[in-house]
UniProtKB/TrEMBL annotation:
This is Peptide/nickel transport system ATP-binding protein. SMART domains: AAA (SM00382). Residues 388-398, 415-438 have a biased composition (Basic and acidic residues). Residues 400-414 have a biased composition (Low complexity). It comes from the Bacteria. One of its GO terms (biological process) is transmembrane transport. It comes from Streptomyces wuyuanensis.
């Protein structure tokens, strides 16, 4: 039996209307029947575009939202419907690392207080002295100096704050850590460090992760198994390498085709599958296959009427598509959508009404241009399709002590400039030294 098993998990949020009577007039089907297993010591990566229900699923596992239906089985116990009193013991065993490290740390508490709060609540450590020793040990593991204890979150850079977030989960000795977009608020150079840290901790401490992310490169790098979500359901699940080598669901194919390759020659040949239309509302999902309204391979039978089950096509490669085998064998041709060269010139020719999977045609243009620029500059790319800049990033960028040197080290490591599963991004000695220095510097300010 797997350490964590989800069986048909549904989370439906009621949509209320009316001032006096607050009638329920519908539901948002945020998570609509997800089954998956996370093996002990492994990482399950959950990927999908914004609004597909990833975060809600993570929160449902932690019981931060109510599960409408289905089972969440941790180590043999269904925690989805456990009474709150019994749930307390299980809360320690399921921990979360949040997307926004600053927002998830109380600015008025110092690091010792933040980290020991949960320990005291769960009875870890006989007294504060014992807890402090444990915290120091964990801080060292996440690459922060022991003198961080009396400092406050604002005194750290974005990457360091995420290390504190990871330490906060680790001090509770959890069975499973859910990482919700663990690096998307961080500068790209810091992203690789945090991902590497998560991997190192997994190796040394035997941790089990459920990593939620919209960024395919991040998920690929860290995951053993990847599940692709679309509108509240899994459309494909496979061992990481198999999924990237041969995506079988039309949605996954389109998602993969949107990932820029920072090699100009490959990028020149890359074709992008453009999907028609927007993501439908989870309050009013299409009948039949949820993806059929945008599917370039949609057929006249089944697709609009019957919801496909997630079916194993061999080797643990599961696909929820009535025609996945035929599409893979090339027996079915595309019926809609467009395939265009992903490079600048090709994208400019595309009808601007056609909307791409993870953004607009303009974004596809930007992705390709950015990738080409990055490759020219020899920089690493942990592609960040959102391209958002956050306060945390600004902090890292502005902080001369922050571990910026690691970015160059990462670039040197990634020969083809991309974060590759087979080629882990490592910090070389200099980078480690600079990182250690950077870790200590703000604390010493
Ligand atoms: N408390 C809530 N009440 C009603 N609808 C909600 C609630 N929380 C989330 N939703 C809706 O459920 C859907 C899934 O949201 P969720 O945040 O899980 O998606 P996501 O894939 O994590 O997206 P993002 O990456 O943008 O956070 C969205 O349409 C969202 O508006």
């Amino acid at each position: 039996m797997s350490l964590l098993e989800l069986d048909g998990v549904k989370v439906h949020f009621p949509v209320k209307k009316g001032i006096l009577f607050d009638r329920t007039v519908g539901h948002v089907y945020a998570v609509d029947g997800i089954s998956l297993s996370v093996e002990a010591g492994q990482t399950y990566g959950l990927v999908g575009e914004s609004g597909c229900g990833k975060t809600t699923l993570g929160r449902a596992v932690l019981r931060l939202v109510d599960v409408t239906d289905g089972k969440v089985v941790l180590d043999g116990t269904d925690v989805a419907k456990l009474p709150e009193k019994e749930m307390r013991g299980f809360r320690r065993r399921l921990q979360m690392v949040f997307q926004d490290p600053l927002g998830s740390l109380n600015p008025r508490q110092n690091i010792e207080s933040i980290l020991s709060e949960g320990m005291a609540a769960h009875g870890i450590g006989a007294n504060q002295k014992e807890r402090r020793e444990k915290i120091k040990e964990i801080l060292a593991k996440v690459g922060l100096p022991g003198n961080s204890l009396s400092r406050y979150p604002h005194e750290f850079s974005g990457g360091q704050r995420q290390r504190i977030g990871i330490a906060r989960a680790l001090v509770l000795e959890p069975d499973v850590i859910i990482c919700d977009e663990p690096v998307s608020a961080l500068d790209v150079s810091i992203q690789a460090q945090v991902i590497n840290l998560l991997e190192e901790l997994q190796e040394s401490m035997g941790l089990t992760y459920l990593v939620i992310a919209h960024d395919l490169a991040v998920v690929r790098h860290i995951s053993d198994v990847i599940g692709v979500m679309y509108l509240g359901s899994l459309v494909e699940e496979a061992p990481s390498d198999a999924l990237y080598e041969e995506p079988k669901h039309p949605y996954t194919k389109a998602l993969m085709s949107a990932v820029p390759v920072p090699d100009p020659e490959v990028e020149d040949r890359r074709e992008r599958i453009l999907l028609l239309g927007d993501l439908p509302s989870p309050a009013n999902p299409p009948a039949g296959c949820r993806f059929h309204t945008r599917c370039p391979w949609k057929q006249d039978t089944l697709c609009a009427t019957e919801r496909p089950e997630l079916t194993d096509l061999g080797g643990g490669h599961k696909v929820a598509c009535h025609f996945a085998a035929e599409i893979a064998a090339g027996e079915i041709a595309r019926t809609s959508g467009e395939v265009v060269p992903a490079v600048r010139e090709g994208v400019e020719d595309v009808d601007p009404e056609v909307v791409a999977t993870s953004g607009s045609v303009a974004e596809a243009h930007d992705d390709a241009a950015e990738a080409a620029d990055a490759a020219e500059a020899g920089e690493i790319a942990v592609p960040s399709p959102r391209g958002e800049s956050t306060d945390a990033e600004a902090h890292d960028a502005a902080d001369p002590e922050a571990p910026a040197g690691a970015a160059d080290g990462d670039a040197a490591e990634a020969s083809d400039g991309k974060l590759d599963k087979d080629e882990p991004v490592r910090l070389d000695k200099e980078d480690e030294a600079s990182e250690g220095k950077a870790s200590e510097a703000p604390a010493g300010k």
